[in-house]
Amino acid sequence: MPLLGLYAMNGGEGPNSYAQNSSYQRGVVDAAKPIIEEEIATKLDVGHVFSTHVKPFRIADFGCSTGHNSFPAMQIITESVQKKFRSETSQIPDFQVLFNDQVFNDFNTLFRSIPPQKNYHAAAVAGSFHERLLPKASLDFAYCSCALNWISEVPKAVRDDTSPAWNKGRVHYTGAVQEVFEAYSNRYANDIGSFLEARAEELVSGGLMTLLVPAAPCFEHSETFYTTQSELELIGSCLVDMAKKGLIGEEKVDTFNFPLYFTIPQELKAIIERSNSFSIERMEILNNPGKCTLRSADARATYLRATCEGLLKNHFGSEVMDELFDRYTKKIAASPLFLDPDNEKSIIILVILKRKAE
């Protein structure tokens, strides 16, 4: 199983690109806007910026993809910070935004798409956000939206055919034995811990961090609603069907698992609280921001293709992608469960964290 850094969201601006199929993620940004503005106005400490000499106010977006949903978020943040400075000082600093994603991310599309009227200097920082990326205490505001459901790698036990957690015939922990779920859960806890540790080094004391985390309301599954995990299970069934027809090797299916984990609010809060570097300023579930954005089978298929095709292509090859997503589209269309937005129970957890003073 390849590490997360060996693929990225679909680049460019074509019909299967992330740029054209991320309306759900844009809905998350819009839903979070008033909360981000309020928290910056009431919680951000701006005194350190002019404590010795004027320095840039640095913002980083961890997991920016090709930027189409990052740019609105950066506008919200920079304008809110400007308003905060105006209320407390006559000086406004320069802004620098650092766009981070995996090394295979399409940064060319991102920089071609940057709004011409932006009020910040832009730079790219390539690498995994599960590790340290920036100098110590160099960052004033950290942001991460719809990215912390990706773990750094599929748990080793899930890939080991001698382990009780070997996930033969499945591509995710959904519906798998308890050992598989526990392996994913432990990997997630370790990865979020590493993410928080890295950001604690990079953020100044009093710096803020906004996390918008794809999650599930609970770990139980019901036939009356679905979450993103259900869709991963559905694409897994398509892969099994293709293996039975000899279109792909059975071993290929047995050795593939999605490096995705969907936490629940209680679990995420417990992980954050184990970090001694941050205080939780606010934590809540957003009203479902994208409930009505993916009403058709085609829309749901292209959405998943935009986010996961790179991973699937890396393992199964590009020549079977059209067949795979055609089968997936037909299975979605055949299920009334997936086409009724009222059955969608995936959630977004919004978390505002503040770097404690050292």
TrEMBL record:
<dbReference type="GO" id="GO:0008757">
    <property type="term" value="F:S-adenosylmethionine-dependent methyltransferase activity"/>
</dbReference>
<keyword id="KW-0808">Transferase</keyword>
<dbReference type="Pfam" id="PF03492">
    <property type="entry name" value="Methyltransf_7"/>
</dbReference>
<dbReference type="InterPro" id="IPR005299">
    <property type="entry name" value="MeTrfase_7"/>
</dbReference>
<keyword id="KW-0489">Methyltransferase</keyword>
<keyword id="KW-0479">Metal-binding</keyword>
<comment type="similarity">
    <text>Belongs to the methyltransferase superfamily. Type-7 methyltransferase family.</text>
</comment>
<dbReference type="InterPro" id="IPR029063">
    <property type="entry name" value="SAM-dependent_MTases_sf"/>
</dbReference>
<keyword id="KW-0460">Magnesium</keyword>
<dbReference type="InterPro" id="IPR042086">
    <property type="entry name" value="MeTrfase_capping"/>
</dbReference>
<dbReference type="GO" id="GO:0032259">
    <property type="term" value="P:methylation"/>
</dbReference>
<protein>
    <submittedName>
        <fullName>Uncharacterized protein</fullName>
    </submittedName>
</protein>
<dbReference type="GO" id="GO:0046872">
    <property type="term" value="F:metal ion binding"/>
</dbReference>
